[in-house]
C-alpha cells in the first residue's frame, strides 16, 4: 500500500486501535486473543483498504472482530469441554453488593461477560459498549434483528442473575422489550 493510501491506513489504525482492542477484549475476554483478533482484522482490512477507506473501514473491522471471535469460540468449544455446573463457586464470587458504576471497567462484569456464549457477549458489547442499534448489530453479526433481540434478552437475564445490582443499570427500553410491551 504505497503513498497516500498507506498513510491513510496507518492514520486509521493509529486513531482506532485502542477502541477496537477494547471491543475485541470485551467480546473474547482474553487479552492475547483480543490482540490476535484485532491483528487478523487489520490484516484483512489492509488487503481491502483501497476499496473500503472511503466507505466504512471501522464497521468492516468490527464485523470481522465479532464474527472471528464467535468462530474461534465454536472451534475451541469442540476442543475444550467446559463444565457449566460452576463447581468452583465462580458464580457466587461474581455477585457483588457494590453498585454497578463504570460497568465495563468492573472486573466482576468482565468475568460475567466471559461466562456468556460468544454471540450473546457480542450482542451485549455492540449494544451497550458500542451503542449500536439492533439493525446495525444484525448487520455486523450477520444475524436477524429478532435474533439480536433474543440474544440481548437472554444475555441481560443471565447478567442480572450473576450481578443483581446490574438490574438498576439496564435501560428501561430493554426491560420493556423483555416484557413484550415495546
UniProtKB/TrEMBL annotation:
Assigned keywords, A-Z: DNA-binding, Sigma factor, Transcription, Transcription regulation
Annotated Pfam families: Sigma70_r2, Sigma70_r4_2
GO molecular function: DNA binding; sigma factor activity
Top-level taxon: Bacteria
UniProt keyword Cytoplasm, yes or no: no
Statement: the UniProt record of this protein carries the keyword Ubl conjugation: no
Family per similarity comment: Belongs to the sigma-70 factor family. ECF subfamily.
Protein name from the UniProt record: RNA polymerase subunit sigma-70
Amino acid at each position: 500500500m504505497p503513498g497516500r493510501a498507506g498513510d491513510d491506513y496507518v492514520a486509521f489504525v493509529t486513531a482506532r486501535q485502542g477502541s477496537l482492542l477494547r471491543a475485541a477484549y470485551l467480546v473474547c475476554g482474553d487479552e492475547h486473543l483480543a490482540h490476535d483478533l484485532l491483528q487478523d482484522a487489520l490484516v484483512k482490512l489492509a488487503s481491502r483498504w483501497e476499496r473500503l477507506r472511503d466507505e466504512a473501514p471501522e464497521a468492516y473491522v468490527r464485523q470481522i472482530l465479532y464474527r472471528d471471535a464467535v468462530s474461534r469460540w465454536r472451534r475451541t468449544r469442540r476442543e475444550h469441554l467446559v463444565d457449566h455446573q460452576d463447581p468452583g463457586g465462580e458464580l457466587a464470587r461474581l455477585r457483588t453488593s457494590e453498585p454497578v458504576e463504570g460497568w465495563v471497567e468492573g472486573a466482576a462484569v468482565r468475568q460475567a461477560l466471559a461466562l456468556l456464549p460468544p454471540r450473546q457477549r457480542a450482542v451485549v458489547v455492540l449494544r451497550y459498549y458500542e451503542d449500536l442499534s439492533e439493525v446495525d448489530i444484525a448487520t455486523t453479526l450477520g444475524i436477524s434483528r429478532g435474533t439480536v433481540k433474543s440474544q440481548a434478552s437472554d444475555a441481560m437475564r443471565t447478567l442480572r442473575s450473576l450481578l443483581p445490582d446490574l438490574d438498576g443499570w439496564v435501560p428501561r427500553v430493554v426491560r420493556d422489550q423483555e416484557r413484550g410491551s415495546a
